[in-house]
Request: fold
Amino acid sequence: MKPVKKIWMNGELVDWDDAQVHVLSHVIHYGFGVFEGIRCYALEDGGRAIFRLDEHIQRLGESAHIIQLNNPHSHEDWVQACETIIDVNELKGAYLRPALCVGYGELGLASIHNPPLAMVAAFEWGAYLGEEGMKNGIRAKVSSFSRSHVNSHMLKGKINGMYVNNILAKREAVDAGYDEAIMLDTTGHVVEASGENLFIIRHGQVSTPPLSSVLGGLTRDSCIRIMNDMGHEVIERTITRDELYIADEIFMCGTAAEVTPVREVDNRKIGTGSPGSISKEVQSTYLSAVRGGRPEYDSWLHRV
Reply:
């Protein structure tokens, strides 16, 4: 991570090295907070735009509402903070991390009324699963760690502490020599990767796990629209583990990972072992759209 000049904290711009919190802040001990991951892209016309900024900030507010975390900033405050942090750091392409959490004060599980800590950082970050993975596909492993039950964790929010489960799955996969983990729910059905939504294609039919069991990713939503525009109906349904093995194509998507094909799952080649035609077209269209190359998707771009 390459440092930049400023980070936005509680409405103020502070130097990168001075953006610090007390070690007894509530969030450090209990993970009580919410966050978003957003990308800003350099556009083909020389400008820059943040991808689906309003929807990301809306979800940040919804995540805070779900866990009853006080959000002292308006939607407009957060949007302006994202715009400002891109501008002041003179960034073209960047990854943005807005976050809201419980800060320093009392320590204890119920001490959720400590002063909130709000921040937005932005920095350069390349392909999350690697440029090679974007081009040729990645290797994935079905994790031994189950995705948390919907009544144990609030799965519609991007909530800090819940991601320990995802981290364990990711580390297990990487330690075993894979690029990413695929997680099953407590009934044994495929839900998502450690940080991405997932699509499978078999005999031309596109399927993805239903929203009832996954985070409603904005990149997921974008990919569904792109595929609908391509003439492919996307079916939301439960998917079994062995369906992954016999799929013709699989791809993952997310803000950080963008659109990344999967060439192998559990040492089983997917399709031909190379990115399939639908995956490649979705990826190409998406990467063009976020850079302003597809006018029909310009509503996704928040120009800065």
Summary: The CA atoms of residues 46 and 224 lie 28 Å apart. The mean pLDDT is 95. The longest strand covers residues 94-102.
